[in-house]
Amino acid sequence: MKDSKKTNNENFSAKQEDLEKNKSDAQDQFMTTNQGVKINDDNNTVKAGERGPSLLEDFILREKITHFDHERIPERIVHARGSAAHGYFELYESMEKYTKAGFLNDTSIKTPVFVRFSTVAGFRGSTDLARDVRGFSVKFYTQEGNYDLVGNNMPVFFIQDAMKFPDLIHAVKPEPHNEMPQAASAHDTFWDFISLMPESMHMIMWAMSDRAIPRSLRMMEGFGVHTFRFINSQNESHFVKFHWKPKLGTHGVVWDEAQKISGKNSDFHRQDLWDAIENGNFPEWELGVQLIPESDEHKFDFDLLDPTKLVPEELVPVQIIGKMVLNRNPDNFFAETEQVAFHPGHVVPGIDFTNDPLLQGRLFSYTDTQLSRLGSPNFHEIPINRSISPTHNNQRDGHMRQEIAKGRVSYHPNSLGGGCPFQAKIAEGGFSSFNEKIDAQKVRARSKSFSDHFGQAKLFYNSQTPIEQTHIIKALRFELGKVETLAIRERMLGLLAQIDTDLAKKVADGIGVAVPKKTEKPMNQGVGADSNGDQESKTVKQAVEKSDALSMILNPTNSKTIMSREIAFLCNDGVMSESVNNMKKALEKEGAAVKIIAPHLGNIQAENGDTIPVDQSYLIAASVLFDGIFIPSGDGIEALKQFPEVKEFITDTFKHCKYIAAEGTGAELLSKVLQSDELLKDDKGVLTSKESSDSALASSFIKELGNHRYWKREKMV
Ligand code: HDE
Q1: Ligand 1 in contact with 709 (CB < 6 A)?
Q2: Burial call 385-395: b when 16+ CB within 10 Å, e when fewer
Q3: CA dihedral 679, 685, 688, 693 (to 10 degrees)
Q4: Structural domains present in the chain
Q5: How confident is the model at residue 686 (pLDDT cuts 50, 70, 90)?
Q6: Is the ipTM of this complex over 0.95?
Q7: Residues at the annotated binding site?
Q8: Ligand 1: which residue has its CA nearest to atom 8?
Q9: Which atom of ligand 1 is closest in space to residue 366's alpha carbon?
Q10: What's the whole-model pTM score?
């Protein structure tokens, strides 16, 4: 009993068609109650006389208010703030040798996906630019059922065992007595917990790097984090690590910028994703896998089951197997982005789990959380969660059941229903768990193979360029600087010293605390049943000591594209229209977006009388919302120096190591604002020309913008 395969296009649109069934459009329609009764007056309640009391019989009022009263559902306990989009996944080459998953076998299948990105700690209404891990959840609507790859933008995690997850989250969330701070890890409870959890050190390096403040959701890598399994049709298993590599490269902002963006536009990432898709700049990622034969399980200097470890790409290269394109924004935020329910346990035949103790805990948590968040075991019937392959079983009833199951049989085995629905044989696509051999004693313990807590933290730190190391040091100075309890700061310095003594010393210098001479042992250390579950840390020498893939700047997948980068043109009445138009044309040809900023909205009048429409005023725009600036030439440009906002625009762009181009009178304004020709002399991130409308300037500006930032400008610590 096998469903016939759909063609490529049929499959791709299958989810879209499925969602259509639930869409409504009020265009040209009467307003009605939820019972379909046309409403005659939606402005007034029924009263006893015009000025009299309202009547309880007003079923229209009661229905409207009751529905309103119940509009909110509990937000996700973690990953509450998110943004999502529809798209598809396409396979480059069949992975049949490793997995029998249909969507990874047949290159002609275009699999619909729904992808949700999120921050972890903040509430639903918090800011996008918090220093935080980003969730990267992909729901593949495959022909064999839904497959969810619920990952993050960092390849490792803070803890090794699910038992510690509630503690980690309680520590990072706002403190319980005063509910502060929002969407921030820079507070005592978080660092208290971390300072007692050496296993978190590798992840802390990632979280303190610029990976935690992405330039865009479209410019982040994604990782499955845990080691999973691919199972082929011969029931052979390979360990697999999943990677998403963004076509636009992996880029971050700087911390000062992130904090300012949070004030200027707390929806910065959400808006960027939405606008990119609306403008046809569909974000793309390639899917990569690291495959490890079952026989190599113990070949590494770390345990594949330990989620605080990554597999260096130098040891196992990432094989690119397909691409994902996001090409459609949701129609309704609540119905889709909010109600989508991911679960690492949503797997299809050909994909299976490992015994990673963090993953094992997750396999319980995600269904459980949907029950309280979405309120019913029928959450799979919500349109965004519905599988495109048919579902039949004997599960029945519950809140808000949509399906009308026919017949008298709701049990198996049965004879009255002809034995239906049938169980599928493995050859018919029935899921069967990998028959891993387990022969063990029941223990509540941590494997000794999990006890290297510093080796990969060192690898990560050593793989960063000096400027990236500087950012990590500054991030730690900021975070620990906000910690009020001295003992916590000291404990953290003790742990950092085990990663790198120079790192610890530099952080210590910034927070006015000395690195402790002796590292205090975290509480309850020891391995085994009498140790309260904690373990001794040891550092293992790594087979790989430096990996460019871990650095955002050296990342081999980074491209130099300026596609969809936003460039601000600082303009005024009296600007030279040729200067504006030529640079605009050159940038737009490369796919960048130009915004004309001026002291007022409406139009500005160019020197030659042309009118140029203004996109944003200086009151609304800010340097932190752009990737670079251009100051055109023109008689009116000098007058911009009287606006403090323009000055701030330029100095912030400079401070955040962004590229600046200026020509003619624009170049004069620039050097006046930055107040030092010396400052600009050796700065290759500032490109100026005495000429107006200089095409050579445009080409070098485009070339440099592709580098993302001119990091040489920033002082190292
Ligand atoms: Fe999650 N996590 N998590 N997590 N997680 C949730 O499920 C949980 C972990 C991740 O866009 C919750 O539906 C436990 C690792 C993402 O809707 C909850 C543990 C990774 C999302 C939950 C972890 C993740 C969640 C909250 C440790 C990276 C957002 C709402 C054992 C691989 C999904 C929900 C979305 C969401 C539990 C650890 C990623 C409570 C118990 C590791 C991207 O079930």
Answers
A1: no
A2: bbbbbeeeeee
A3: -160
A4: 82-385 (2.40.180.10), 454-550 (1.20.1370.20), 566-713 (3.40.50.880)
A5: very high
A6: yes
A7: 76, 116, 165, 362, 366, 373
A8: 362
A9: 44
A10: 0.96
